[in-house]
Design brief:
Blueprint: E1 13-19, H1 24-36, E2 42-48, H2 52-60, E3 68-71, E4 74-78, H3 83-92
Parallel strand pairs: 1-2
Antiparallel strand pairs: 1-3, 3-4
Length: about 100
């Protein structure tokens, strides 16, 4: 399943989530990413664990649990998403949304 409208969105953090059906950590990661999308520019791609790409990503990153979460191709977490770690990585990479005009 791919939710991205294009494979390369300039200025946005590319988040890859390798998930599986019925995974409560995956649902938690989705909720966390929805919250973080209010603060950061996120382009989120979901990849099913059962797909060839999902299995390859899990193996490449040594992930033992889903979801595997990547930021711009770099490992963030496997299993329960560390919101603090992802937030720090997003800030360090400069993906913070600017002030919203009202």
């Amino acid at each position: 399943m791919n939710e991205r409208s294009s494979s390369d969105v300039a200025g946005m953090a590319r988040i890859t989530v390798v998930d599986s059906i019925g995974c409560h950590f995956c649902a938690d990661a989705d909720a966390a990413l929805a919250e973080l999308a209010h603060e950061f520019l996120l382009d989120i791609e979901h990849v099913r664990l059962a797909s060839t790409m999902g299995m390859d990503l899990m193996a490449d990153h040594g992930a033992g649990m889903s979801p595997l979460v990547l930021l711009d191709g770099r490992f963030v977490s496997s299993g329960r998403l560390s919101r603090g770690r992802l937030r720090s990585m997003l800030v360090d990479a400069g993906y913070v949304r600017g002030p919203v005009a009202s």
